[in-house]
Amino acid sequence: MKKRPVIRVLGFLLVVTALSLLLPALASWLGGDADAWSFLAAAGVGLALGALMWRTGSDAREIRVREGFAVVTLGWTLVGLLGGLPGWFSGEIPGFTDSMFESISGFSTTGASILTDIEGRSHGVLLWRSLSHWLGGMGIVVLALAILPLLGVGGMQLFRAEVPGPVAERLTPRISQTAKLLWGVYVLLTVVETAALMIAGLSFFDAICHSMATMATGGFSTLNNSVGGYDSAAVDWIIIVFMFLAGVNFTLHFLALRGRVRSYAADEEFRFYVTLIGGAAVIIAGSLFVVGYYGSIHDTIRHTLFQVLAIVTTTGFGTADYLLWPPVAHAILLMLMAVGGCAGSTGGGIKVMRLLLLFKVGQQELNKLLHPRAITTLWFNGRSVKPHLATNVLGFFLLFMMVYAVGVIALTLGGRDLLTAVGATAASLGNIGPGLGTVGPACNYAHLLSWEKWLLMFFMLAGRLEIYTVLVLLLPGAWRRA
Amino acid sequence: MSPAALEKIGMADCDLVAAVTNLDTVNIVAALTAKRLGARTVVARVRDEDFYVGGRMALDGIDVAINPDHEAAHSIREILFRAGAVEAYRFAEGRVRVVGATVEPDSNVAGKSLRQLRRELAGNLALVAAVERGGKTLIPNGDTVLLPDDTIFFTGTRRLVDRSLYHVHVQQEPLQKVMITGATPMGVELARDLCSAGVKVKLVDEDAERCRHAAEQLHHVLVLNIDPVDTAPLIDEGIGEMDGFVATGEDEEVNMLSCLLARRQGASRTVCLVNRVDYLDLLPRLGIDSAVSPRRSTATGIARFVKRGAVISAEALGRTGAEIVQYRLEPGHRAVGVALQDLEFPADAVIGAVIKGHGVETPGGKTVLKPGDEVLVFSLPSGLEAVASFFSAEDDAK
Predict the structure, then answer these.
(1) d(Cα B52, Cα B73) in Å, to the nearest integer?
(2) What is the spatial distance between Cα A214 and Cα A410, in angstroms, rounded to a whole number?
(3) Which of A295, A373, B97, B193 is at 20 to 30 A from B368, Cα to Cα?
(4) In this predicted model, what pLDDT tens digit does every residue of B151-187 receive, in sequence order?
(5) Which chain B residue's Cα is nearest to A376?
(6) pTM above 0.90, yes or no
(7) How many Å lie between the alpha carbon of A2 and the closest alpha carbon of chain B?
(8) Interface of A with B (CB under 8 A)
(9) What CATH number should be reported for the domain whose range is B177-296?
(10) CATH fold of B297-397, please?
């Protein structure tokens, strides 16, 4: 691995993050909060360190696949750590670990929080939480559709040809091209949602914070009771729609904006995504209806859809404490936690595309029992999938489950109850936010021990960066000069 | 093959240049060079699928590309779908079909004259334009009596031809399951074709690599890696329950053997791919229904463009040298405006169908031809010359 080009890109990322810290500084200053200085101080640290690294580094165009893994993983980690500084400086967020937890949870678009009194925080902190989601989401869109396909991670190669742009061995030209196209879609959807939420009665500040958290499928809210705090059907429905959109492959949005609206229906993954949501919603709404949990059918449907989408897209907003729902709802939601959004969306988790391919592999194996001499191919969106791609996806699934198992064992080893351990691991590895047990939607992560928080931070990054990207750096070979 | 050499032999002045060697690249280069030099129409035989996009030649400059595998696959498809059919041709974008069928001994047309049949079946009988009997083709008239083992050629719209076949042949099961052996380009094309028509297709090949290649192109086709003469696994895969069995492998003898196996196990229709003419005559005696040779399919494909004058299309009819030729009537031709019964049409030939604009008419004595009409002429070998001069003489006079 060539280290100096990597250092230069990391420096660049720190400078960009430092500059974006000026926005919450402004928000705190305008809002009359006393902590504007902490953002400026953090920005100063970021600028200084970033400039130093930029100077030390060498030409970024030398970055190839091997360096790509390091840039992605170290970049996300560094940016997350820098983002945690202001809260720690000002004491708005108690302690170093908690500050970092909140920031990494933000940049990984997880939305798991250690804050109990959110409404009492400064404007700067609230904006920064949402902005960190939004910037993280921006990174994810490009990561998923431009970088990972080239790195060959977890079946994302399927999308190599989907987004228009030059196909080159050097990563930079293609990435910048794709970024411009998809960020346009991302910004547009955020603006539309902000406008819709303002029409529904939210202030500009609240509307933009929630929009940024929705489009990034993050889940930080500005209220203690999350979106449920508004108790407004209009707000719920707007966020339902935009959570749904944020969980869809952004390439499809891009094509639809170019007039090819039929791309949605033609996409196998999109159809499966809709089917999963529909199926889960019917079962949960049915169970709620049977026990008569909500007074009206409209409320049942609204809260069911909201929670199903919040979990499956890994946003993690809450309007209801689903731990009070019937057990079947817990079971379904726990499974949805692992599913995640579509590949190429801002959602986390295993991804609908991978599950679909896994189903197909299963089906294929069953077929082979009937026809032992059959030679079969997997098909995805009307094209045959190369066998090594299916293996890549199987490997991803296995690694995801292994990391998951390690998490559950570690947390239970430390004395957590099983439900909490499972919920916390699933919620951080899948970048959802609220989990089950004592980290459920009505509680938060504040009571966990320091080492547990750092473990979960690692899971958030590993899950966000598609496991492979992070784990590959644990191989000694990744660091050698190629 | 050098442009200079091609120019020297006068390629620039040719009306038609057909490049039909076994090498795609040679054909393409030759055809493109000829076009550049000024040849009017260029035809190239190109087998490689990569040159086709959505079934059409992707290279500009080649007027007509002939893919022998596709030609053969389409004609097998026609035969499979028409119970009783042994040969099938399409004219005028499929609006006119010509289908040859063998008269079975227990069919209710055997032993009857055409006049009698026309009375009995009224509008449900397509025109019988030719009858092949004992290795010879004859142009029938009303008194011709159909005998068992005759091959009769119906002409008309698809519906009419299908309805006629129903009377000639004993009714068979509809085509639902087909097994194809040989993942050759032709086998793959046939599988794709049948699959898109809603047939369940199993494609068998002994070569794993070819199977993998086929499986990557065919979504809903079950590709099986089995040697086509390996009986037990083929029986496991239900060779006996097939409505159709087609052998398209590279080895003709293996094709015949696997067809025999399919026949023995109870497959309804078997089609075998052979090139050697001696085998073509042998197959019916082995109980294998039909045989198609891709070489002949290419020949007829190219023959379409070689014919002179007003010819639009042409096919060889059966194996006796008789032909079907499609002509367009130019204004001022002597056949224009005259009822067919008053026309001095060459002997040993008959007009089998008249294509008027988008419609198709069965010709009768009172049919009057108009300029721009197209006619489908069935001709015995002895009548070919006369028919050609009948249609092209006026061209010269004009």
Answers:
(1) 16
(2) 31
(3) B97
(4) 888 888 877 887 777 777 655 567 889 999 999 888 9
(5) B215
(6) no
(7) 39
(8) 371, 373-377, 379, 382, 384
(9) 3.40.50.720
(10) Alpha-Beta Plaits (3.30.70)
